[in-house]
Amino acid sequence: MKSYLNYGVIFCLACGIFLTTCNKEYFELDKLSNEIEIEPTLVAPIAYGSLTLDDIVAYVDSFGYTEVDDEGLIYIVYSDTAFSVRADTMVDVPDKLNTEYYIDSDINIPIWLGSTPGDTVPFFKSELFSFELDGNDRVDSILIKGGQIVIDVMSSFEHTGLLTISSSQILDVNRDTFATTIDISQPDGLFTDQLVFASDRYCLKTSTQGDSSYIALNFRLDLINSGSPVNPDDVCEIKSSFLDLDFYSIFGYIDSRDLIDEAGDIDIPLYENNPDFANIVFADPRINIYTSSSIGIPLEIELDNVIATPFGGGTPVELTFTGDYPFQINAPGIDQVGERVDSEIRINKTTSNINELLESAPTAMTYNVVGRTAAGSGSDQHFVLDTSTMDLSLEFVLPLDFKSSGFSFQDTSEFDMVSDSVNLSMIKLAQADLTTINELPIQLQLQIYLLDDTYAVVDSIFDGDAILLGASIVDGDGKLVQAREETSSIALTAEKLEKMKDVSYRHMVARIITSEGGADFVKLYTHYSLDFELSIKAEVILNTRDLK
Fold first, then answer.
1. CA-CA distances (angstroms) from residue 495 to 238, 239, 361, 413, 434?
2. N or C end of the chain: smaller count of CB under 10 Å?
3. Residue 421 has pLDDT above 80, yes or no
4. What is the rounded CA–CA span in Å between residue 149 and residue 476?
5. Is the dihedral of CA 84, 87, 92, 96 positive or negative?
6. How many CB atoms are located within 10 Å of the residue 451 CB?
7. Span 28-42, mean pLDDT?
8. CATH class for domain 96-253?
């Protein structure tokens, strides 16, 4: 801000006061000197403003990585939405299952021998249809998505009849027991037929025998005695095929298997943009892992090869863990089908060496995520839907709850305090007063440098060391109790004022020192601010001779 001394106005006011208080009867005015000299004291603000924590955040976070919690505590967050796993890639349902069954001529020979032409003789048989997935997986039930059930029948019996195929473990779209009847209409022993059923939304419910899952298929062949013999090699052959199968849901047990093995990285521009941040010790730095899963299987993940790249080179630092590891991911239970369950994993200074990692002032962090279904027992009950997913994201979090004695922030702006037209010989005494109201729970070593139009340093407002602004008073939770108000005075010598004629900019540097010389942690909330006013107090000598 510019400060103008309107000497003409001051002179006129002084003359008016002087003349109206003088009585010409007592004074010989013609003998008075035509020179008048007065020494007024002038006070004028030349700069004022408010430095809020938003300003500090904008300084250290030019890329917009800050967040604020419900209480106003500021966080710096670098995040990476990492991976998503679809459940339909976890479980492979064989897209083609084939099996063959035979009803032989010897299964009901005594009854057949006692029959006469025209009699109907039933033949019965049950078979187990194996339904297995990979490894040690166990299928209790599966809701089929798409696909077909194909049944091929061939009969070499020289008799007509009816073949009924059924299974109480196969339910159709109406959840009725699957059953179908095939009319063996040719008595020449050359009968063939094929039935095709769209299996979409059919449900298969398996039984367990040992370590295997199976479906029982029941066959009933009602042969009508044509009078021809039943030959020893006569047979009714049934081929059943499940083709192009997928699933809407699977219930059972899914054995441990790898799901994720992916690399990622998080850029951390904080230290690269602000090298002084290496002097800050954060109270609660952490890496948060967030998961949201609708997969009904407990999962576990590992962070492998978490490497921090230090600012300016140096030896990379690897993150190591001391707590429970691998990390367990919660899953919805059997009564939460279709719901999502969230998990949050916090990697902090008690469960890792993250403080050591931060001391390297990292500019980037690379990592590898390895995820798998958690090992369990074959009696566990799992489920998987075709729409089930597990989403995982990571964030690197720095709450502004810290201590420091070496970090500083800086700001430059235009500043033209002393005009070239000012006659400095008229200034008897000059003084700059800086008044501050500090709500920040930090001490500030403040210096203001004066720069010319090439940004070269001409002088500084404060001679020698920077002035120290006291910290506000806060309670044990870092909440403001009372702001600190202080006024500092600086004598402006003629030499300093002369230098100010060349000043075009001011460059403010504020060094942060937390309580107890940087030994205590403090918290920064968005509503904290530092208000300041810089004013000039000058005693000037005004003579009419100088005003001509």
1. 111, 108, 43, 23, 20
2. C
3. no
4. 71
5. negative
6. 19
7. 61
8. mainly beta
Q: Which residues pair with 136 in a beta bridge?
A: none
Per-residue pLDDT at 6: 39
Using only C-alpha atoms, what is the Rg of the chain? 45
Alpha-carbon gap, residue 329 to 502, rounded angstroms: 65
pLDDT digits (tens, 9 = 90+) for 458-489: 888 777 666 777 888 877 776 788 888 988 88
| Strand 96-104, strand 203-205: pairing | unpaired
Chain centroid, CA 357 distance in Å: 20
pLDDT over 70 (residue 58): no
Q: Where are the beta strands (DSSP E) in 53-202?
A: 66-68, 74-86, 96-104, 120-130, 138-145, 148-155, 160-171, 177-184, 191-198
Q: For 17, phi and psi rounded to 5 degrees?
A: -65, -40
Domain ranges of the chain: 7-62+405-547, 76-89+255-399, 96-253
Token couple for 108: 């009901």
Q: What pTM did the predictor assign?
A: 0.66
pLDDT at 27: 47
What separation in angstroms does the CA of 286 have from each of 48, 69, 77, 398? 38, 15, 10, 7
The Cα–Cα gap between 456 and 427 comes to 26
Question: Is there a cis peptide before residue 326, judged by omega within 30 degrees of 0?
Answer: yes
Give the number of other Cβ atoms within 10 Å of residue 10's Cβ.
16
Please provide the distance, in angstroms rounded to a whole number, between the alpha carbons at the two ends of the chain. 27
Q: Which residues of 135-149 are buried (b: 16+ CB within 10 A; e: fewer)?
A: eebbbbbbbbbebeb
Query: pLDDT tens digits for 333-384?
Result: 999 999 999 999 998 889 999 888 888 888 888 888 888 888 777 678 899 9
H-assigned helices in 200-313: 269-273
Phi-psi region of 544 (alpha: psi -120 to 50; beta: other; left: phi over 0): alpha
